[in-house]
């Protein structure tokens, strides 16, 4: 068996075309052009590339964007002042504070300061709580991208054993909550999974991962998931982005695991393009919510 490669770029293009049409319809109906404000503190090269790609993709779907570049020695109060300014700006629908932040800044404090109606990353405690209750305002971007990829590839979650390797607030926890719900924005077949979260203190990790009909790797360790850790026919979603010898690799040993999996995402070109796309999706959603509030 050799796995079918799940093409995140192609799925992202499909969704962006839908967003572009929805943005045009929204504006035609009298809505203002949606706007995303991205904030980047410091000189992290990967973050700069990511923010630049978001600005480029905003333009492609008809969403305005602005980027606020702050020096690495920016104080927490200075950043809070900017977030407050963006919260008060009625033309800004979405605020995205790029992580990680410099060590002198408390990330939780900043993320909590973003107004929950403009929190297009879905990091605010209010939005996380709504996700946990199955009535989300916004869905976390990378997990939502995973849901879209599985659904559009006709891979059902309902009734399946799902193993999530990693318990971060950005991927592991929200994807586990979303897949365990009774329903989703994509219907009940995209939810109702039996979900296990693994982490650094999980005993007999390989024994647990081999139970997964669907395995989501988001642990941040290059090529950590090997062929002996998965069962035949597994669906593998690799969220990891690691630089090894100037190459990007995932958390999954792609070459060995693809021989046992039924479906697998590549790195790059898998989940990554969908993360950016769902930021656009949430920005349009924020604009719609602001219009009716």
Summary of the model, kept short:
With 293 residues, the protein is α/β, with parallel strands linked by helices. Helix content is 40%, strand content 16%. The mean pLDDT is 96.
Tell me about this structure:
This protein folds into 2 domains: 31-116, Leucine Dehydrogenase, chain A, domain 1 (Rossmann fold); 140-272, Rossmann fold (3-Layer(aba) Sandwich). 40% of the residues lie in helices and 16% in strands. The chain has helices at residues 8-28, 45-61, 76-88, 107-113, 125-132, 141-152, 172-180, 205-209, 254-257, 272-292; strands at 4-5, 35-41, 64-70, 94-97, 161-165, 194-198, 214-217, 235-238, 242-244, 247-249, 263-264. The protein has a 6-stranded parallel sheet. A 3-stranded parallel sheet has the order 3-2-4, sandwiched between helices. Helix 1 runs parallel beside helix 10, helix 6 crosses helix 7 (172-180) and helix 6 packs across helix 10. The termini are far apart.
Keywords:
single chain, 293 residues, alpha/beta, Rossmann fold, 2 domains, 6-stranded parallel beta sheet, 3-stranded parallel beta sheet, 10 helices, globular
- Report the sheet with the most strands, covering strand number, pairing sense and barrel closure: 6 strands, parallel
Instruction: Give the helix level as a range of percent.
Output: 25-40%
Within CATH, the superfamily of the largest domain carries the name NAD(P)-binding Rossmann-like Domain
Query: What is the domain tally?
Result: 2
Strand order of the largest sheet: 1-11-8-7-5-6
Shape: globular
- Count of helix runs: 10
The fraction of residues in strands falls at 15-25%
What's the CATH topology name of the largest domain?
Rossmann fold
Quote the average pLDDT: 96
């Amino acid at each position: 068996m050799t796995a079918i490669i799940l093409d995140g770029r192609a799925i992202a293009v499909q969704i962006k075309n839908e967003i572009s049409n929805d943005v045009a319809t929204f504006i035609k109906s009298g809505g203002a052009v949606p706007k995303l404000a991205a904030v980047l503190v410091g000189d992290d090269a990967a973050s700069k590339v990511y923010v630049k790609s978001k600005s480029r993709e905003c333009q492609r779907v008809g969403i305005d964007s602005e980027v606020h570049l702050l020096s690495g020695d920016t104080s927490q109060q200075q950043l809070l002042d900017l977030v407050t300014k963006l919260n008060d700006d009625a033309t800004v629908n979405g605020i995205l504070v790029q992580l990680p932040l410099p060590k002198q800044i408390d990330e939780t404090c900043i993320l909590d300061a973003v107004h929950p109606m403009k929190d297009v990353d879905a990091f605010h405690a209010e939005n996380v709580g709504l996700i946990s209750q199955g009535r989300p305002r916004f869905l976390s971007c990378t997990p939502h991208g995973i849901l879209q990829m599985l659904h559009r590839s006709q891979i059902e979650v309902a009734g399946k054993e799902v193993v999530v390797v990693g318990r971060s607030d950005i991927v592991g926890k929200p994807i586990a909550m979303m897949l365990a719900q009774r329903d989703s924005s994509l219907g009940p077949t995209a939810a109702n999974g039996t979900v296990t979260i693994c982490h650094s203190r999980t005993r007999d990790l390989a024994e647990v991962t081999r139970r997964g009909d669907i395995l989501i790797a988001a642990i941040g360790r290059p090529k950590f998931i090997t062929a002996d850790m998965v069962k035949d026919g597994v669906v593998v979603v690799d969220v990891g982005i690691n630089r090894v010898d100037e190459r990007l690799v995932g958390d999954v040993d792609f070459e060995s695991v693809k021989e046992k999996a039924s479906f697998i995402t590549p790195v790059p070109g898998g989940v990554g393009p969908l993360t950016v796309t769902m930021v656009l999706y949430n920005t349009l959603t924020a604009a719609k919510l602001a219009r009716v509030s």
